[in-house]
């Protein structure tokens, strides 16, 4: 397969999810909240050994952008998606590579000898999940990897770029490098807000990247955090927030900016800077509680489905629909895995 076949280029923090159920005691002990995500601090570090020691653990390939990349690879023809990030040379990376191979995702990791691959504690309580990532090798990514002989041709050949907000915690210069190249070549650049703490604690980094973004994807909690952090008068007005983000300054004016806000089982909202008053609302088909196994990675699955449909030229209505179906598939499985349930219609054929 030639380099030019990889239409979608994704970058992020490769993590292995360490997932446990019935983690109410862990939430209390470490001061965590259900349906939240916080970057691990020193006080959280004993938790990773505690998970393995005291709980039945499930290991699932993770990292928000990598999850979305695998989801996009799942709905696209083979060798359509490439992913880069930084890993260690341990057994965790073997889990990640196996999962990527299974979905047809082509990875080009920067490997740091002697370092540990990043991990994410995933604490499940009923249908809720709390995420606590420790980046380890992931935050040692170097911008020079993007210009290396094995990666630079993939950057040049890609038609679309995707990055999660978590990468802003350490990799803003790399994101800006890709964003500038995308804008100069009029290629599509997509950013996921990823978590409330990203838009709150790394808002300056987010604002530096925003002018290069053609698509912004996020959920309602992240949108509200963005509005509060940037001083919007009505932070709970989701449509007003989406419209303001869509109309903020943009480098490549030949493309409109599209803002997509998901709301779990509630309707998804889409606003385009081309028609800011024409707000599109997409109903979501609820999944019965009896079929919901795990909500971890559902937002990444939506993003991957949306990206996959966008790559092949589907209109925005179809992109949202594919995203919804991928999210529905994800919640019926353990973690961000992709295996289409028999009772569902597959969103796109490879």
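Q: What amino acid sequence fits the structure above?
A:
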């Amino acid at each position: 397969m030639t380099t030019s076949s990889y239409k979608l280029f994704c970058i992020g923090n490769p993590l292995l999810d360490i997932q446990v159920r019935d983690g109410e005691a862990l939430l209390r002990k470490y001061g965590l909240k259900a349906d939240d995500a916080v970057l691990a601090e020193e006080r959280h570090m004993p938790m990773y050994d505690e998970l393995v020691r005291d709980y039945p653990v499930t290991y699932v390939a993770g990292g928000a952008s990598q999850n979305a990349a695998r989801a996009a690879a799942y709905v696209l023809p083979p060798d359509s998606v490439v992913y880069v990030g930084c890993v260690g040379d341990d057994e965790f990376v073997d889990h990640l590579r196996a999962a990527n191979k299974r979905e047809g995702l082509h990875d080009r990791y920067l490997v740091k000898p002697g370092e540990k691959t990043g991990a994410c504690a995933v604490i499940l309580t009923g249908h809720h999940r709390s995420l606590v990532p420790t980046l380890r090798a992931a935050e040692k990514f170097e911008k020079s990897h993007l210009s290396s002989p094995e990666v630079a041709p993939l950057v040049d050949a890609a038609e679309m770029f995707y990055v999660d907000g978590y990468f802003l915690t350490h990799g803003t210069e790399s994101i800006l490098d890709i964003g500038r190249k995308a804008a100069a070549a009029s290629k599509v650049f997509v950013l996921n807000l990823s978590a409330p703490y990203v838009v709150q604690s790394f808002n300056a980094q987010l604002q530096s990247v925003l002018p290069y973004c053609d698509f912004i994807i996020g959920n309602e909690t992240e949108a509200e955090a963005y509005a509060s952090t940037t001083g919007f008068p009505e932070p709970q007005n989701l449509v007003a927030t989406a419209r303001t983000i869509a109309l903020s300054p943009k480098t490549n004016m030949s493309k409109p900016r599209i803002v997509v806000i998901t709301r779990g089982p509630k309707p998804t909202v889409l606003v385009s800077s081309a028609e800011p008053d024409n707000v599109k609302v997409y109903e979501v088909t609820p999944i019965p509680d009896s079929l919901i196994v795990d909500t971890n990675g559902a937002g990444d699955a939506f993003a991957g489905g949306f990206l996959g449909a966008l790559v092949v030229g589907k209109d925005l209505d179809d992109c949202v629909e594919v995203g919804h179906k991928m999210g529905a598939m994800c919640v019926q499985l353990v973690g961000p895995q992709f295996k289409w349930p028999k009772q569902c219609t597959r969103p796109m054929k490879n």
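Q: And what stands out in the fold?
A: The chain has twelve helices and 16 strands.
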